[in-house]
């Protein structure tokens, strides 16, 4: 974990996110805390990561998401050399989808 990231303010934000109870609360909170473009950028990166995990090509990802190759490359670097956060969440979402 990046020590520069671990601050009382970041922990307070993460605790706030962890307190959200459902999708409606997520929309309310994130619409207040993020600009539309920030939220769309986050969701774009998440979709890029999902597509990279599905072994899609950079060209396919760029066409579907509108992400630049620089963004795709950054997300790919996170998937390969990061903290496995994307994989942890994708694994959990996969388990949730299997239960429904």
From TrEMBL:
It comes from the Bacteria. Pfam families: Trp_repressor. GO terms for molecular function: DNA-binding transcription factor activity; sequence-specific DNA binding. Coiled coil: none annotated. PANTHER family: LMO1763 PROTEIN, TRPR-LIKE PROTEIN YERC_YECD. This is Trp operon repressor family. The lineage of its organism: Bacteria, Bacillati, Bacillota, Clostridia, Lachnospirales.
């Amino acid at each position: 974990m990046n020590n520069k990231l671990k601050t009382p303010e970041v922990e307070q934000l993460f605790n706030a996110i962890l307190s959200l109870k459902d999708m409606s609360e997520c929309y309310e909170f994130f619409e207040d805390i993020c600009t539309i473009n920030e939220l769309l950028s986050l969701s774009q990166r998440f979709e890029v990561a999902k597509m990279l995990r599905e072994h899609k090509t950079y060209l396919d990802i760029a066409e579907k998401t509108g992400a630049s190759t620089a963004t795709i490359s950054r997300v790919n670097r996170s998937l390969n050399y990061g903290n496995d956060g994307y994989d942890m969440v994708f694994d959990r979402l996969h388990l949730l989808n299997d239960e429904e």
